[in-house]
Amino acid sequence: MNKCVLITVLGDLSSEALQSFLLKEAQKRKLEGTVHLEDSDRIKIALFGAKDNVDQFVDNLYDHCTKLKLSEIEVEPFFKNKDFRGVFRILK
């Protein structure tokens, strides 16, 4: 079964460590979606894939939040309203 979530975090999307972490985790778990900066420090991550893989991604994000300098992580269900075309992208 697939799952789609919207993750909102406060952090610095220009951080190479954060970008690298997000891309590696998504690719390793065969997830698709997008990451974009909503405000100056509010990052939105739309994530779609197998339920277990999405859950593992979220768990690892929580585990690494201090190292990646992230705060206020919110995860909510999300209805996939567009085709991510099988890839995970960081939009700038």
Question: What's this model, at a glance?
Answer:
This protein has 92 residues and is α+β, with helices and mostly antiparallel strands. Helix content is 28%, strand content 37%.
Task: Name the descriptors.
92 residues, alpha+beta, Alpha-Beta Plaits, 37% strand
Descriptive report:
By secondary structure, the protein is an alpha+beta fold. The protein has one domain (2-80): ACT domain (Alpha-Beta Plaits). The chain has helices spanning 16-28, 51-63; strands spanning 2-10, 32-37, 42-50, 71-77, 88-90. Strands 4-1-3-2-5 form a five-stranded mixed β-sheet. A hairpin with a 4-residue loop joins strand 2 and strand 3.
Superfamily (CATH H level) name: ACT domain
Number of structurally distinct domains = 1
And the CATH topology?
Answer: Alpha-Beta Plaits
Distance between the termini: 31 Å
Q: Which CATH-level-2 architecture?
A: 2-Layer Sandwich
Quantity of strands, as a count: 5
The string of secondary-structure elements, in order, is EHEEHEE
Major sheet: order of its strands? Answer: 4-1-3-2-5
What overall form do the CA principal axes indicate? Answer: globular
Poorly predicted runs of 5 or more residues: none
Q: What structural category arises from helix and sheet content?
A: alpha+beta
Q: What's the tally of helices?
A: 2
Q: Rg to the nearest angstrom? A: 12 Å
CATH class group: Alpha Beta
Give the % helix. 25-40%
